[in-house]
Design a protein that fits this description.
Keywords: TPR repeat. This is Anaphase-promoting complex subunit 7. One of its GO terms (cellular component) is anaphase-promoting complex. With 604 residues, the protein is mainly α. It has a domain of 230 residues: Alpha Horseshoe (Serine Threonine Protein Phosphatase 5, Tetratricopeptide repeat), CATH 1.25.40.10. 72% of the residues lie in helices and 1% in strands. The protein is elongated and about 105 Å long. It contains 32 helices and two strands.
């Protein structure tokens, strides 16, 4: 009976009916355990192999690793007794070799949250026995689970071993660049590999673009990827479109990022990476509410809930101001994928919206550990510190942003706005230099233009501010620019022009509160609102980064105006701290803005 049952278990496994293998192999294993007269070590070992691998294939990882541990123990016993049957089994089925069994055991350990055991299992194999798949898993484990420089060095070594045999492993290339390996070194390693295909110049360009992205040069990376899209036969490849869109989104060119990401999703509607990024970009581009709803409907119709699906649901709740519900979804996303960067950023923004700043700081710190090349990390931390009146830490975030994003106007604009609202007169005067630096990088960068207009108005050059804004709205019309210009013209006693710009703002958003308040002020015959609007500067705009149209170098505007999507404005927080006699804000400003000033000079 045992032999007939064994033959049937073997047949089930050969036909990959793993769910049927499990009960049959379990029954046979019990029979062999209870009747040692008919049981042989070879038969028992093969039954254990079938049972363990069937559990692995069915993703029963806890059961699988227990079975695999027993299999490896039995295998060592058979080796000790020099069993000829063992060699025959492994020759007939390469799934049952020591290398493959250890790989599967390591995967099981990884899935049940035991990365240390997974690493030990793989390191038991000699370097010569490690296949590219083993090295890739080992690299991921060291990269994601090991702490300190040793884990990083071990991960780099494992990824390099993968590239020596598989130079087209783009994920290994990306991981090395993320770990800080120089792009030239990675390119050399790929091109000098024995199995590297010839005539793949595009791969060097791809590596260059990734190196720029992880080096915080996001616009340069987008342009490099764009070269591949424009000048090679890779045009409109889904991965290439996603990379271009990702880099533009990282830089803050959200309108142009939406174009590339929506193209990718239109051509490949099940690319969840593109869908996740597009969901964020739609939220930043406020005019995309209809498209955002369509995207959410598409995702909701798919019942395969991955981390990306939960993230999109959380993003939709965030857009609908259902912040507590959004936290529930994003927590599910992070439970499934603790390294989901967009999930950590969304979690931070949700906590900010709930005014739970300490938890928001923790979320942004987690994101910083995973993706220090993201500007949103520093912007989020900056906002949290300002909201808590921790002005020293807030300004430190600005200095770090300038050091990390040397070629981006966003960091200079954020710090310029911070200095402009400082109580330190010298720091306030220095704000102009940082805004000028931002405009030098991108002369049409709208947040910088708007801030420069505020500075001009503060310095008494109101006509220069009006001229600057009028020129900007001609090329890049936007609701917030219209209302800012309307406020300045209202103060300058030009009610007809002011009214025109307020109505332009209402044509974009019929519920624009600032435009409605401006019109009401004009109706009451006053140039300044009755509730103490003493400046044309709209409070509530952090770094000037999220919601105002700004041109990309190619001439496409992007959204970069609103704060980190929270109710409490950044400038209001900064100013309120100062107006309550907070001398710390003034005392701590000077050395930090001077450090940033030196840093800016070093960048030139």
């Amino acid at each position: 009976m045992e032999n007939a049952l064994f033959a049937n278990v073997q047949k089930l496994y050969d036909h990959r009916l793993y769910e049927s293998v499990i009960p049959a192999a379990s029954l046979l294993n019990t029979l062999l355990q209870n009747d040692r007269n008919v049981a042989t070590l070879e038969m028992e070992y093969q039954v254990m192999l079938y049972l363990a691998n069937a559990h692995y294939k069915e993703r029963h990882f806890r059961l699988a690793y227990q079975q695999l541990e027993s299999v490896l123990h039995t295998r060592r016993t058979m080796l000790r007794y020099k069993s000829a049957c063992l060699t025959a089994i492994e020759i007939m089925n390469n799934q049952f070799t020591d290398v493959e069994l250890r790989y599967r055991l390591a995967v099981c350990y990884k899935e049940v949250g035991e990365p240390g055991k997974a690493i030990s299992t793989l390191l038991a194999l000699s370097a010569k026995m490690r296949t590219p798949r083993i090295n890739m898993l080992l690299g991921r484990l060291h990269h994601h689970a090991s702490a300190g420089s040793k884990g990083k060095a071990d991960a780099v070594m494992a990824y390099k071993d993968v590239l020596k045999e598989c130079p087209m492993s783009l994920k290994s290339i990306e991981a090395l660049l993320e770990l800080g390996v120089d792009g030239i070194e990675v390119n050399s390693l790929v091109m000098n590999a024995a199995s590297a295909p010839r005539n793949i110049e595009w791969l060097s360009t791809w590596i260059k673009a990734l190196a720029q992205m992880y080096g915080c040069k996001h616009l340069e990376a987008a342009k490099t990827f764009q070269q591949l899209n424009d000048s090679t036969r890779l045009r409109r490849n889904e991965h290439l479109l996603v990379e271009i869109g990702r880099c533009l989104y990282y830089y803050g060119h959200n309108i142009q990022a939406e174009q590339f990401l929506s193209t990718a999703v239109m051509a490949y509607p099940y690319n969840m990476e593109a869908i996740s990024l597009l969901a964020v970009v739609y939220e930043l581009n406020e005019q995309s509410a209809i498209e955002q709803e369509k995207l959410f409907t598409q995702v909701s119709s798919d019942r395969e809930f991955s981390p990306a699906h939960w993230f999109v649901h959380g993003q939709k709740m965030y857009s609908d101001a259902k912040y507590q519900r959004g936290l529930t979804f994003v927590e599910r996303c992070l439970d499934m994928d603790p390294r989901h960067v967009e999930g950590h950023l969304l979690r931070g923004n949700l906590f900010i919206s709930l005014q739970r700043y300490r938890e928001a700081i923790e979320a942004f710190r987690n994101a910083q550990g995973l993706a220090p090349y993201r500007f949103e990390v520093y912007k989020g931390l900056f906002h949290c510190y300002v909201a808590q009146k921790r002005f020293k830490e807030a300004q430190t975030m600005c200095v770090w942003a300038i050091r990390s994003f040397r070629t981006s106007p966003r960091s200079y604009t954020m710090f310029g706005r911070t200095l402009f609202h400082s109580t330190n007169p010298a720091a306030k005067r220095s704000a102009r230099k940082f805004v000028e630096k931002a405009l030098k990088i991108d002369s049409s960068y709208t947040p910088a233009v708007a801030l420069m207009a505020e500075i001009c108005q503060y310095e008494g050059a109101t006509k220069a501010a009006i001229k600057l804004l009028e020129k900007q709205v001609i090329n890049y019309p936007n609701q917030n620019l219209y209302t800012l210009l309307g406020d300045i013209l209202r103060i300058e006693k030009e009610p007809i022009k002011a009214l025109d710009y307020y109505y332009r703002a209402l044509s974009v958003d019929s519920n624009c509160v600032r435009a409605i308040n401006g019109i009401n002020s004009l109706k009451m015959g006053g140039s300044i609102g009755a509730k103490g609007e003493g400046t044309a500067t709209e409070p509530g705009r952090g770094d000037g980064s999220n919601g105002m149209a700004t041109p990309t170098p190619s001439g496409t505007p992007h959204q970069e105006w609103q704060s980190v999507n929270c109710d409490e404005p950044l400038e209001v927080s900064s100013v309120s701290g100062a107006t309550h006699g907070n001398s710390e804000a003034a005392a701590m400003s000077e050395p930090l803005w001077q450090d940033a000033d030196i840093e800016m000079l070093n960048n030139e």
